[in-house]
Amino acid sequence: MTIIFMGTPDFAVPILKAVHKHYGVDLLITQPDQPTGRKRHPVSPPTKVYAESVKMPVLQPGRVNDISDFIHALNPDVIITAAYGQFLPNVVLNAPTKAAINVHASLLPALRGGAPIQRAIEYGHRNTGVTIMQMVKQMDAGPIYMQKPIPISPGETAGSLFTKLSEVGAELLLEALPKIVAGKLQPKRQDDTKATYAPVLKREEEKLDLTAAAITLERKIRAFHPEPNTYVLLDEKPFKIIEASVFKTDTDAEPGRIIAITGDGPVVKTGKDGLLLTRVQLPGKKAMDAKQFMHGAGQKRITLSTQLK
Asked: How far apart are CA 31 and CA 44, in angstroms?
């Protein structure tokens, strides 16, 4: 069976590994290397790093349409995508003889789009899951082969949920793939009237709006961790909030005001209740526990008169 795999971030790696181990992957298509850091050195996508370690052929087109002739020449039985990062044109979707399959990190039709893991946490969902679906040109709207739900644990971050869902995705794909290829598993159409969306994260969303309720902010902090993380302004400079919890209070104070300094860290007033900051990061510094911060730089920078923005 000739398989082309298309995927880019860490989420796709366990799925790629599983397919390669059980069936072999003839070609990985992933996004181009991205310049990173102050010196802008190019960094390979995680899937490429794995592919090179097992001597798997790799292509990194700027536009997948540019290599459509090459894809057709391989005469693939199956194309599998997992967080590839580009829409596939019909000329590519029609290339496989058996199926074009996508592994999506939500229970479709819920959370169609590029950030289903982060948005599930941010929106306060109690459950999410993985969908194995047939690809169509419309975003995440193809018919469904299989789904598997999992609970979202209290305190779950995007990082921990990414790991869980990628492992579930690998297991579910291995269960579904032979049935799909044999024609023993027919996809079922999604109910478009129940579709919800998970747009990709935008830079302007990283700044916390302290007029929101503490529970809303706490979810967002977990949803944006380990990257890109959220921040507020302290002395007009970004002050990253890596970890926080809801602090129940009916104190009548302006949102952003520090209303208490506990043994675990400072409490900032929000639109409803307060937010206990337990792990923070100053510009150019490493993340640290808030109690450590308060025993160092925070002693002078954060007091009961401090106003975060």
From this structure: 9
Fold entry, domain 203-301? Methionyl-tRNA Fmet Formyltransferase; Chain A, domain 2 (3.10.25)
* Contact by Cβ (8 Å): 120, 153: no
Per-residue 3-state assignment (H helix, E strand, C coil) for the chain: CCEEEEECCCCHHHHHHHHHHHCCCCEEECCCCEEECCCCEEECCHHHHHHHHCCCCEECCCCHHHHHHHHHHHCCCEEEEECCCCCCCHHHHCCCCCEEEEEECCCCCCCECCCHHHHHHHCCCCEEEEEEEECCCCCCCCCEEEEEEEECCCCCCHHHHHHHHHHHHHHHHHHHHHHHHCCCCCCECCCHHHCCECCCCCHHHHECCCCCEHHHHHHHHHHCCCCCCEEEEECCEEEEEEEEEEECCCCCCCCCEEEEECCCCEEEECCECEEEEEEEECCCCCCEEHHHHHHCCHHHHCCCCCECC
Sorted by where each begins, the domain ranges of the chain are 3-194, 203-301
Instruction: Give the CATH number of domain 3-194.
Output: 3.40.50.170
pLDDT in tens, the chain (309 residues): 999 999 999 999 999 999 999 999 999 999 999 887 777 788 999 999 999 999 999 999 999 999 999 999 999 999 999 999 989 999 999 999 999 999 999 999 999 999 999 999 999 999 999 999 999 989 999 999 999 999 999 999 999 999 999 999 999 999 999 999 999 999 999 999 999 999 999 999 999 999 999 999 999 999 999 999 999 999 999 999 999 999 999 998 999 999 999 999 999 999 999 999 999 999 989 999 999 998 887 777 888 889 999
State the pTM of this model. Answer: 0.94
